[in-house]
């Protein structure tokens, strides 16, 4: 039974979402720099940067359930650009990301993070964080 559980967990990891898949699902950018440029062109105040890693079930849940939630998607499309990057990139390392999923709320005008959250959040909790971060932008 123990071996069966290990096999099932391993197989599930093979099908977990990658950063590229997550960006595609969300219609997101694949780098912070691209997202900031797009936000400036579109006159949006914030970039929501999602750091994920291959095989992370919580990342997949964050992308598919929370960020793909109708209310969350609508709110983000109003005044933010979403970007998804892998934990094992230079950008994630420079930000100090160590765990996934990590969300950075990036102020486009000041070009810096104004808030971050770590771990999976339900849509309602995410929206509270988002509104709080928006209040910290210029």
Please state the second-level CATH architecture.
3-Layer(aba) Sandwich
What best-fitting shape do the alpha-carbon axes yield?
A: globular
Structural class assignment: alpha+beta
Strand sequence of the main sheet, in spatial order?
2-1-3-4
- Quote the beta fraction: 15-25%
Describe the biggest sheet? 4 strands, mixed
Low-confidence spans: 4-15
Order of helices and strands: HHHEHHEHEEH
- CATH H-level homologous superfamily name: Glutaredoxin
CATH class category name = Alpha Beta
| Mean pLDDT across every amino acid position | 88
Rg estimate, integer Å: 15 Å
Task: Name some characteristics of this structure.
138 residues, 4 strands, alpha+beta, Glutaredoxin, four-stranded mixed sheet
Task: Provide an overview of this structure.
With 138 residues, the chain is an alpha+beta fold. It has a single domain (17-135), classed as Glutaredoxin (3-Layer(aba) Sandwich), CATH 3.40.30.10. Helices cover 51% and strands 20% of the residues. The chain has seven helices and four strands, in the order αααβααβαββα. It has helices at residues 2-14, 19-26, 32-41, 57-67, 70-79, 90-95, 123-135, and strands at residues 46-52, 80-86, 102-107, 112-118. The chain is globular.
């Amino acid at each position: 039974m123990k071996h069966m559980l290990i096999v099932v967990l391993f197989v599930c990891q093979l099908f977990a979402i990658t950063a590229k898949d997550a960006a595609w699902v969300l219609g997101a950018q694949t780098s912070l720099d691209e997202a900031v440029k797009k936000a400036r062109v579109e006159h949006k105040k914030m970039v929501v940067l999602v750091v994920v890693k291959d095989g992370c079930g919580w990342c997949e849940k964050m992308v598919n359930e929370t960020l793909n939630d109708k209310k969350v998607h609508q709110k983000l499309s109003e005044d933010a650009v979403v970007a998804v990057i892998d934990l094992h990139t230079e950008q994630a390392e420079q930000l100090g990301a160590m765990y996934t999923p990590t969300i950075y709320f990036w102020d486009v005008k000041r070009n810096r993070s104004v808030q971050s959250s770590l771990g999976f959040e339900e849509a309602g909790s995410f929206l509270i964080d988002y509104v709080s971060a928006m209040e910290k932008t210029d």
